[in-house]
Amino acid sequence: MADSKTFETDIKTWDAGGQTIHIRKDLRVPMRDGVELAADAYHGAADKPRPALVALSPYGKELQALALTMPPQRRPSPMWDGCIEAGDIARVVAEDYVHVIGDLRGSGASEGEHIGNYNAGGVSLGQDAYDFIEWVAAQPWCDGNVGMIGISYFGSMQVFAAAERPPSLKAIFVSGGHYDFYETTYHGGIMWLMPRAAREGRGGDSGWAFTDRIKSRMLETYSPAEIKERVAKRLQDPDVAAWPNLVHVLHYPTNHEAWFDIVTNELDGEWYEERNPINLARNIDIPVYLQIDQGRGWTLDGHIELFNVLKGPKRLDIGSYPPMQSRPWVEEHDKMFRWYEYWLKGVDNGVMDEPAVQVFVEGSREVVTAEQWPPKEVEHRALYLRPRRKLSPEPELMGTEHAGPDGFFQAPLTVTDKVEILSWSTDPFAEPTELIGTGAAHIFAEIDQDDTNFILRLWDVAPGGARQLITSGYLKASHRELDERTTDGDPYHPHTRAVPVEPGTIQEYVLRLYPFAATFRPGHRLTVELSNNEPLVDEHNSLLPPDAFHLPVGRPVTHKIYRDAAHPSRLVLPFTRTAVEG
């Protein structure tokens, strides 16, 4: 690694509300293969060594600099840009750290090729992060102690880096990262459209800082004939064929190389597992703080899975709804600096004397602490779908001939704007009822096509009608197989093959309900909604970026939902022991 022994003289200054920030622009950071990455470093006026917080992504270091000039935006502000995620530069400098923001290879002002999605091909992003961190630690403006900063993509990069065990990386603080990449891009086997926005800059994101050195791993791996065959197969999927952007991606892959790789790999397997961060995390032994807010279940699920495999000092902090943090990202900095004060500056501030897990409980607005997830003992209990749209702890006693199915017909969104939704609700709760953990939805359904989506959302509905999303579940009908990890209230699907549904048959579909923590207060109801597409706008979706929804079903489908004595459609939910005994 290169090791500068003197401070650079080309330093710009910035006045941030009376605070002078020195900026070292366009530093060149050598990688072991000779490629140089570009970086900017921000620190206080005094020339002294400081701990460094490193942020790495393909979104462009110049975009991150807007943290100095743009007030934080919350959804649904149209100025919210999902890629400004490297943290509050002025705050980092005020806390006496060096904030180092770098462009990954193949992006921004950096050299080199970036192949594939999210560490899937080419040079390992973790390897580059190792070299970057060790270079930073060797600079005279760094005291040799390095942490990392940033959410989402930046957060996942922290996991890649820590798994490589760079000696100077002493701790990480991860907020809102994405881990198992299949689960990031296909929720229950249903394609999520947000990765397109993250790459291409559509619908509230600037996207990657594009260069001509970003390449498709599929095009690098397979012959033109093999690619042609895979493209033709994907275009046979009615959902794909009905979505213009995907047709365009499949015909013009070099314009959408990263998104093309996702679209042509609709099943889990080696493609996604090769550098799965959850697998890599087993190598991590430095302290890790994981923070995630409720409302985006798959990321919450991933943080819990990651927490469970980590072997070193660790914390899991599950925060409150709503799901989207500000851009530029400024939340959670108090917790982050307390973590780094202990691990990078050696200040015994008591952070390691606290419980490993803290969970904000919606409804009661209490914080529950423990050493594990879930933080309380739970009992999974059923709420049954009943006629007249009721949810009840008692199952239906009548057979199908008397308790006929509910149903809905969903036309493709090519011919309608209306999303059909079925709902079932409990009676108002008479006393506070707490649920914390994962859950399941067992839906007995008959469809007249060979596939559909099942999208299920749980709401806390107040007496006046105001409501808040509690959790969600997704399942593509052809991905209904379960694997050996499945337990009551905690189902898992392998997603390694698609098995078409025989139209006209009644099948049991088990949806995983992502982890959540909520207390239903007296007078409130629990309402569950079922559809095969998402409403374009509602109380929850208006808080998300415009592209944060799932690929609609591209064929007309009639759904019959059975909930009778022979077909006990139900929710299986994690009631805490306190609630059960109360």
From TrEMBL:
Residues 337-572 form the Xaa-Pro dipeptidyl-peptidase C-terminal domain. Keywords: Hydrolase. InterPro entries: AB_hydrolase_fold, CocE/Ser_esterase, Galactose-bd-like_sf, Xaa-Pro-like_dom, Xaa-Pro_dipept_C, Xaa-Pro_dipeptidyl-ppase/CocE. It holds the Pfam family PepX_C. The keyword Hydrolase applies. GO terms for molecular function: dipeptidyl-peptidase activity. NCBIfam families: CocE_NonD. This is CocE/NonD family hydrolase. The lineage of its organism: Bacteria, Bacillati, Actinomycetota, Actinomycetes, Micrococcales.
